[in-house]
Every structure is written in structure tokens, then in C-alpha cells.
Amino acid sequence: MDLKRFKAIASRKKKKLNAFLLKLDKIVPEDMPKLVAKADAKVWKNVDCMKCANCCKTMTPTYRRSDVIRISEHLGMKPKAFVEKWLVKEEDSGDWVNKSLPCQFLLNDNKCSIYDVRPKDCAEFPHHNKKPFDLYNQTFIDNLTRCPATFQLIDRLKQKVEKEYEW
């Protein structure tokens, strides 16, 4: 995965893809779930998260209370000690997030040292399966230049919708 190349292409196309997603807030094709599923299946033939891990390098998940309890238990720590060591509360949202980047659990081979008990936010990333899809357009806008899979999905959807639908 050439992240430098990906970021350059994503930055170049971001404005048009953002506009597409914003328009998708207002006009949603009836068969959007099918379009998303088909495009997403193609995306995962081209993207290997293990060769990328850009999400772990440039973003932090939010940790729910259940995440903190599960992970701290796995690590043999008390939840309070886990929070004090690894997390900080965001002022604006009140969410618990990593103190630093890249993620403290990311290994050198792009694997996660707590994969089996990772936060729900990580397990659901890049959120392509959320329904209805269009309610997560801001999430996709935020991830366009961070996640090659999200970039490819939105780019494919844009091409398909603009070609085959009255837009």
C-alpha cells in the first residue's frame, strides 16, 4: 500500500467526493443498500488493511465504558489504571480517546495487539455497513483521505450513481 500516493489522489478528488456525499444527503437512490454492498465487495478485493493501518496511525477510536472494561481485563489492569495510562477525555465531545498516535496497540507489522478485544469503534471501522448508509456521510467525508477503502467506495459510488441515475 503506497499511502503517499493514496493521500495525493484522495486529496485531489476530495472536493468532488465531498460534494457527492453532501448531495447524497438530499437525494438517495432507492437501491442504495445494493449499490453500497456491490461496490464495497469490489473495494475489499483491492484493499488490505494489514498493508495500510493508516486508521491506527492517524486516528483514534472512541472507547466506550464496555471497551475499557473488556480491554483492561484482557491486559490484566484495572479500568482506572487503563484510562490513566492510555486515554484522555475530549473536551468537546466527552469521548475517551487515545492520548497519542499512532495507537499504542499497533504493532510494527500493522497488526493490533488487542485485536480480539479491540474497541467497538475499531471493529466497525470503516463503517461501510452502517444503515442507512447516507446517515454516515459526514463520517465518510472525514475518512476520505484517511482510509483507502472509504475513498475507493465513495469514488465507485459516485461514478455509478452519476452514470446510471438521474442526478
What does this structure look like?
- The protein is mainly alpha-helical.
- Helix content is 54%, strand content 4%.
- It is built from eight helices and two strands; from the N terminus they run αααααββααα.
- Strands 1-2 form a two-stranded antiparallel sheet.
- α1 (3-24) packs antiparallel against α7, α1 (3-24) packs across α8 and α4 packs across α5.
- 26% of the residues are buried.
- The model has no long low-confidence stretch (mean pLDDT 95).
Brief account:
This protein has 167 residues and is mainly alpha-helical.
Keywords:
167 residues; mainly alpha; two-stranded antiparallel sheet; 8 helices; elongated
User: Which secondary-structure class do the elements indicate?
Assistant: mainly alpha
Number of helical regions: 8
Q: Compute the separation of the termini in Å.
A: 33 Å
Mean pLDDT: 95
Biggest β-sheet, characterized? 2 strands, antiparallel
Q: Proportion of β residues?
A: under 5%
